[in-house]
């Protein structure tokens, strides 16, 4: 499909050859059969060779991550798809819909299990524990639930939010879950006991997204109040607020390699690139998604596994791909080359470390000597 450059004249990006931010438009993809449906979720396969999108009409579309061509389309759910997550062993993934159903999938897009009564209302978000033994879900029914993945059994229900819970994220190393919802509250939970550890009341409106940084010390939150907040887990307090969006912030994504770099999306179709050390956005793309519809919301953002490209899904019915200036001609080459991955990160003055080494048992779920992150009193490591 031909790229849509209709918004190019309004962008404020200074596309210099040394710009390290993935803000260069690459391609816009539309599933024409599902053109009347917004793209609610985007999910790269672990290899980065393909991208799965989940739409409002319950369809999954598989796109080639190198040619950006459509490869497969299936009716995955009977209701709008709201959540998708890969397991950390890269073999399985799960999805949730507006009907409260959670489905299990294999990497070949085969549905192997259906839990039709996971929640009473929409399953808004899903997140795996690093050990893959468990995952958590959140819903418009105001609850957060913890599940045994292999047995597909509910283990705990976490209650405390006063309204729809829209986002949940499992800590990268600890037995700790963050959640946020329409009650404007961000909560931290002990996944072992199900106990609420603390609540943050700093946002003035709905919380749309909560995301742990891979370092395990920072929690990023986005809200309808147009503000992004960064919390430091070590001090258990707000570290910084990021302002710049002119409408509600609907999506967040930390860079997979550079821990100080994140991207945000808004209901006005804008995408901003940020560095933690700066209060203002480093790159603004005010019309990244545009359409004749009143709502251009960027519903989801996800980085390619090696961090050289990011994908956005929007209410404008399109999936768009963005890369770093100078890398556009390289994105069709072998993306699994580790040297190429390092090259993607070379312009950032921050260290890049690999993921922690993890050894697990079902009962304990311990972390290996390569683990990083803060140990919270009373909270175990992994689950």
TrEMBL record:
Keyword Signal: no
UniProt cross-references to Pfam families, sorted A to Z: WD40
Keywords, ordered alphabetically: Repeat, WD repeat
WD repeat intervals: 32-64, 74-106, 116-157, 158-199, 200-241, 242-274, 291-322
SMART domains reported for this sequence: WD40
Entry superkingdom: Eukaryota
Swiss-Prot/TrEMBL GO biological process terms: mRNA 3'-end processing
KW Cytoplasm (keyword) present: no
GO CC list: mRNA cleavage and polyadenylation specificity factor complex
Record PROSITE patterns: WD_REPEATS_1, WD_REPEATS_2, WD_REPEATS_REGION
Stored InterPro entries: Pfs2-like, WD40/YVTN_repeat-like_dom_sf, WD40_PAC1, WD40_repeat_CS, WD40_repeat_dom_sf, WD40_rpt
UniProt xrefs under CDD domains: WD40
Xref: PANTHER family: PRE-MRNA 3' END PROCESSING PROTEIN WDR33, WD40 REPEAT PROTEIN
Record protein name field: Putative transcription factor WD40-like family
Species assigned in the record: Rosa chinensis
């Amino acid at each position: 499909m031909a790229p849509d450059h209709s918004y190019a004249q309004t962008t404020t990006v200074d596309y210099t050859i040394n710009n390290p931010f993935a803000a260069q438009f690459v391609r816009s993809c539309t599933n024409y059969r599902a053109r009347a449906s917004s793209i609610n979720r985007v999910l790269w396969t672990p290899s980065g060779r393909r991208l799965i999108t989940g739409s409002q009409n319950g369809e999954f579309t598989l796109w080639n991550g190198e040619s950006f061509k459509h490869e497969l389309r299936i009716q995955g759910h009977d209701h709008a798809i709201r959540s998708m997550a890969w397991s950390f062993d890269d073999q399985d993934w799960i999805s949730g819909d507006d009907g409260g159903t959670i489905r299990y999938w294999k990497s070949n897009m085969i549905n192997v299990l259906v839990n039709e009564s996971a929640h009473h209302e929409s399953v808004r978000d899903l997140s795996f524990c690093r050990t893959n033994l468990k995952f958590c879900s959140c819903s418009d029914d105001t609850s957060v639930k913890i599940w045994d993945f292999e047995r597909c059994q509910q283990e705990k229900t976490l209650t405390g939010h006063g309204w729809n819970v829209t986002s949940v994220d499992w800590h990268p190393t600890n037995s700790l879950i963050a959640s946020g919802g329409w009650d404007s509250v961000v909560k931290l939970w002990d996944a072992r006991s199900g106990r609420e550890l603390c609540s943050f009341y700093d946002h003035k409106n709905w919380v749309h997204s909560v995301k742990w940084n891979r370092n395990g010390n920072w929690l990023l939150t986005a809200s309808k109040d147009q503000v992004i907040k960064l919390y430091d887990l070590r001090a258990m307090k707000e570290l910084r607020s990021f302002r710049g969006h002119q409408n509600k912030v609907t999506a967040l994504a930390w860079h997979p390699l550079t821990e100080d770099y994140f991207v945000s999306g808004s209901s006005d179709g804008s995408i901003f690139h940020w560095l933690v050390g700066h209060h203002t956005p480093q790159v603004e793309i005010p019309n990244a998604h545009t359409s004749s519809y009143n709502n251009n919301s960027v519903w989801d953002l996800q980085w390619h596994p090696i961090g050289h490209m990011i994908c956005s899904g929007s209410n404008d019915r399109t999936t768009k791909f963005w890369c770093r200036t100078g890398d556009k001609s390289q994105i069709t080459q072998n993306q699994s080359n580790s040297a190429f991955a390092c090259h993607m990160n070379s312009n950032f003055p921050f260290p890049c470390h690999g993921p922690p080494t993890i050894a697990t048992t079902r009962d304990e779920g311990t972390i290996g000597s390569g683990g990083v992150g803060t140990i919270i009193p009373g909270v175990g490591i992994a689950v």
